Every structure is written in C-alpha cells, then in structure tokens.
Inverse folding.
C-alpha cells in the first residue's frame, strides 16, 4: 500500500494525468549489474579509443619561439603597446578604461564588470626591459621615454608604427616599410626603435619567459599579462587559423589536427558564422545573451506550451514503448 | 603510441557546405551518435528474465 | 505500514527540536521505501534508450578516476611521460563518451516527455548538469598547459569579458582555472548528479505517454 510520505507522494495532488509509476506491474531488473556492465563498457571504449587515437598536445608558444619565428611581429606588437593601439591597450574592462566595451542591447555589461584585472599595455614592454642591467643604450632609451610627455610618446610610437607599415595583403598595397623594421625610413621616432629592438632581443634569448607574470611573486600561475601580449601579436592567431581554430572557422568546435573537438558547442559557435553577429562589434555579448536565452528555454521546456507538446506530435515514443502499447492493446 | 595517434600537424580534414564547416572527426562523432540513438530505439530489448510470469503487481 | 525508527523512546519520535530525527526523517523520505536501489522496474522499462543514463554515469566515474590519476602526476605530467599522456587520452575520450551518452540520454528524455508526472525538476537538474559539464570541460581545456590552452583562453576571454564575467573568472589565469576544474566544478557536477538520480528514484521512471491503469 502507499505509505504516507507527503514529500514523495502528495495524495490527490496530481497536476497532469500521468499515473504513478509505482502502480504499474513490474519485472525483475538488476540496476547494480547494469551499472557494472556500463562501467566495463566505458572503460573498454575509453582505453581503446585512447590507445588508437591518443590526444593532441601542440606545444605552447614561448616568447622566444614567437621571436624566432616572427621577429617583425614582435617588433610591431611592442611598438603597438607603446603607442597604445593594440587590442589589449584599447580593450576596456576588465583590463583598463580605454573603452566601454561591448553592450548587450542597452546593457553595458562589460563596463559593469569593472576594471578588476588592471593591465598597463605599455608596461608589458617596459617592465621586462627595466629589469635589464648593464645595457647603457637601453637605459638611455628608457630614461628618454620616461622623461617625455604622454603626447610625445604616442607621437613617436605611432609614427614608428606607420613607418614600419604592413606587407601587401590580398590586393592591398604594402604600406611604410612593408612590415620590415630593418627597412624603415629615417625619422624622429625617439627611443622607440631602441626599445622595440631591445625587447625583441630579450624575447629571442628567453628573457621574456615568466617575466610578465601577474602573480606578483616567484611562483607563476597567472599568465594574464603574458597571454595578453601574445594575443596582441598576429603570430598566435596565425597558428590558430592554420589549424581551423579561429572563431569564424567554427573554431570553438574544433581541435588541432584530426582530433575530435567539442561537437556540443555547435550552436554556440554557429552564430558567429552568420550576420548580424559576424559583422557586429558586440558579437560576443550578443551571442552570449542569445545562448543564455536558448539555454533557459531548454531548462524550462516542461513549462513552454508547444515546445513541450512536440513529443506528442512526433511520436518517437511509440518506438520506445511499443511492447507496452502492444500488450495493453491485447489485454 | 599507435601509428594512428594524433600528433597535431596543422589543420585536419574538414568538410565544407555553404556556411557550415566541420571536421571529419566531429562529423563522425555526430553521425555515430545519431546512429546509436536510432539503434537504441529500434533494437529489441531482451526481456531477460521477463515473460508474463515474472510480472507482479505494484512495486510495493 | 510505518518505518521503524529503531529504539527511540516515544517522546523523541515527536520531538521536533531533535535535529537528528529531523534529518533522518528527511533522508528517509527522499525516496519511497525500497526505491533507493530497487530490484524491479515497471514493465514498460524495456528499451535500449534507457541505458544511456547509467552509461553517462559510468563515463562520469571514469572521467573522475582518470582525472585523479592525472592529479597524482600533476598538471604538467602528461607532457613529459608517455604513461601520463595515455592517461590524458583516457581522460579526453571518457569526456567525449560522457557528452555523447549525455546528449543521447537528453534526446531520449525529450522524445519521451520525461518531465511529466511532477518530474520537471528532474529535467531541469539534467539540463543544468549538461551546462555545468560544459563549463567543467572548458576549464579542462584551459588546464592543458599547451597551445590549445593559450588559444582557447585568448578567445574565451572575449566572450566572458563582453558580459562582465571575465572580471571575476579569469580564463588567462591557469592557477585559478585548474582549481575550478579539479575542485569546484567536479563538486558541483557530483552534487547535481546526486540530486538528479535521487529525483529519478523518487518519482520512478516516467510512464508511457497516454498510459492508463485499468481498475
């Protein structure tokens, strides 16, 4: 008989016509055996798949690796940090107040997060350089930079960046020295060329590894500044793009090489491939907002009229319970 | 490590169709999942100990 | 038929200030008697679609076990040891299996409209579990200490920063991400899994659509 367990079985309080599962005829069913079998199956599958397909381990990009592979990119990035034109320098919260960031409709969510992880982009270049000793040329350049006004600094760095220019790409002509710092025309760039050259040298000799830790002490663990610097360059994205990992390549779903990625991210990454998201400055906020909404809809399916009736309209369940329906028809 | 093991060298194999671009690996996973789902629905489930004589009344 | 509460004296049975009795009563009332680990199921539980819940659970066990083995060696172990790399592969593939079985389980539950009969919370806890699992796997990718972690962190920060979350949850901080991945999120996954499974045992497997009990 039914025990009176008000928490499990409130008498008469049924909101739909679904009968109590405990009132049906039963058959023997071994849950523990089923679980053990499931465990063995999953173990065999995982170990088998691991043995055959392994897992990808593309080595992390080191600062020296970056400097050796693409020295012009390191120089351009360093100059950009000094000029305040890099992605991190113009990002806004949580790193700085250079912009308000993205909005979700009228909501300035990025701004409301606040500048809780302050990062000085010029410091990404100057801090490691300031630790270098016994280099009088570098010391003089740093002194010259520190003595200048912010306007003068920006002028030097911006003009040097323009002078370096960029190589010809997709039908667009090369600008400046075509991206090659060695071919820059003479001009008044202050200490910027010396600073950026010293920065490249430091990177190439491995002096930048761990030099930008945000942890504040001997122990690393917070790579915020190093990763922002790396992301400000083009090299990281170039490598990712070559592996189909960029945002506009459905990258969120993908993995390096032929390894399986994250197929369950298909809907999240889909929106980035199509307008209006693909062309919007607020793409990230918009996609996040949309996905939160759709996730909420999935959570609340039991309460959404129409959506919750789809299983009735498309009776896949008749396959699941065909034995039961057949036995009921015959009784 | 087996000869087939994945040591990433650039991009893997991808299939493109309009705006859709998917790796062969991911597509395989999705196709296998759909197949498994369909098989789970149509394959008969053994009524192992089960025939009518095994059925009892209510669960308690 | 009432459950025996042991040798408690008559006055403590109704003693509402006894926290132990209160807790025991709540726990015993979570599922109907004998339904925590029943050896019988309703006759309509006869389809392969029903195995995907337990397959997901089994995959979760393997994810956690392989994760524990990785923890023994530390976060950089798999880069320098072939055994470590193999364990990492097992961890990756058991996660792929976890999501595969979980999604098939979700498809099945949707087409069976398994939220019927006051089972809305079972459905809700399941979807929340799916979302938390995605978050857990995401922090896992950030903890690989390789190119993937660098790229994924750099990309994900833009999404999270755009809605203000990045100010608190710093995907560029591997120290933080690793601890979320190994401590906080697995605790959440296990807790919600427990709630989900208890709810299933409490209400029993949902009857077929339009099932009627004669008499």
């Amino acid at each position: 008989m039914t025990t009176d367990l008000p928490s499990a079985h409130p008498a008469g309080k049924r909101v739909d016509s679904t009968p109590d599962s405990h009132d049906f005829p039963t058959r023997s069913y071994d849950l523990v055996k089923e679980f053990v079998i499931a465990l063995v199956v999953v173990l065999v599958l995982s170990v088998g798949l691991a043995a055959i397909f392994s897992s990808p381990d593309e080595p992390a990009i080191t600062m020296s690796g970056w400097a050796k592979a693409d020295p012009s990119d390191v120089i351009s990035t360093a100059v950009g940090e000094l000029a305040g034109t890099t992605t991190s320098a113009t990002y806004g919260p949580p790193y700085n107040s250079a912009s308000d960031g993205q909005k979700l409709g009228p909501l300035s969510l990025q701004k409301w997060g606040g500048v809780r992880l302050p990062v000085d982009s010029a410091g990404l270049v100057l801090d490691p350089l300031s630790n270098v000793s016994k280099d009088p040329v570098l010391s003089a350049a740093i002194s010259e930079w520190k003595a200048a006004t912010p306007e003068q600094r920006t002028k030097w760095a911006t003009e040097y960046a323009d002078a370096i220019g960029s190589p010809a790409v997709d039908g667009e002509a090369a600008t400046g020295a075509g991206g090659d710092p060695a071919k820059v025309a003479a001009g008044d760039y202050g200490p910027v060329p010396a600073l950026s050259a010293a920065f490249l040298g430091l990177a190439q000799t491995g002096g930048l590894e761990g030099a930008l830790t945000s942890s504040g002490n001997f122990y690393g663990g917070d790579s915020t500044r190093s990763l922002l610097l790396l992301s400000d360059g083009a090299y990281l994205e170039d490598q990712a793009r070559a592996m189909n990992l960029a945002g506009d390549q459905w990258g969120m779903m993908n993995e390096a090489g032929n390894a399986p990625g994250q197929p369950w991210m298909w809907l999240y990454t889909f929106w980035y491939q199509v307008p209006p998201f693909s062309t919007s400055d607020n793409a990230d906020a918009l996609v996040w907002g949309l996905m939160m909404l759709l996730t909420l809809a999935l959570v609340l399916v039991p309460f959404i009229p129409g959506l919750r009736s789809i299983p009735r309209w498309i009776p896949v369940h008749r396959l699941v319970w065909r034995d039961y329906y057949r036995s009921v028809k015959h009784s | 490590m087996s000869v087939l093991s994945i040591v990433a060298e650039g991009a893997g194999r991808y299939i493109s169709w309009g705006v859709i671009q998917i790796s062969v690996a991911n597509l395989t996973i999705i196709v296998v999942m759909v197949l498994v789902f369909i098989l789970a629905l149509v394959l008969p489930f053994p009524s192992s100990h089960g025939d009518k004589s095994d059925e009892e009344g209510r669960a308690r | 038929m009432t459950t025996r509460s042991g040798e408690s004296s008559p006055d403590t049975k109704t003693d509402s200030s006894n926290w132990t009795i209160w807790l025991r009563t709540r726990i015993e009332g979570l599922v109907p008697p004998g339904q925590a680990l029943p050896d019988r199921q309703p006759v309509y539980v006869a389809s392969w679609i029903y195995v995907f819940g337990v397959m997901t659970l089994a995959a979760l066990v393997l994810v956690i076990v392989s994760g524990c083995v990785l923890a023994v060696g530390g976060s950089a172990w798999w880069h320098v040891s072939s055994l470590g790399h193999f364990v990492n592969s097992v961890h990756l593939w058991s996660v792929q299996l976890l999501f595969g079985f979980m999604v098939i389980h979700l498809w099945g539950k949707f087409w069976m409209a398994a939220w019927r009969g006051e089972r809305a919370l079972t459905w809700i806890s399941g979807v929340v579990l799916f979302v938390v699992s995605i978050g857990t796997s995401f922090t896992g990718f950030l903890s690989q200490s390789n190119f993937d972690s660098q790229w994924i962190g750099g990309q994900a920060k833009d999404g999270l920063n755009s809605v203000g979350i990045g100010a608190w949850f710093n995907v560029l901080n591997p120290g933080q991400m690793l601890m979320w991945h190994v401590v906080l999120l697995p605790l959440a996954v296990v807790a919600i899994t427990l709630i989900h499974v208890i709810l299933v045992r409490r209400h029993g497997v949902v009857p077929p659509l339009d099932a009627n009990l004669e008499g």
Remarks:
- Residues 1-8, 49-53 of chain B have pLDDT under 50 and may be disordered.
- The first strand of chain B starts at residue 14 and ends at 17.
- Residues 12-42 of chain B form one domain.
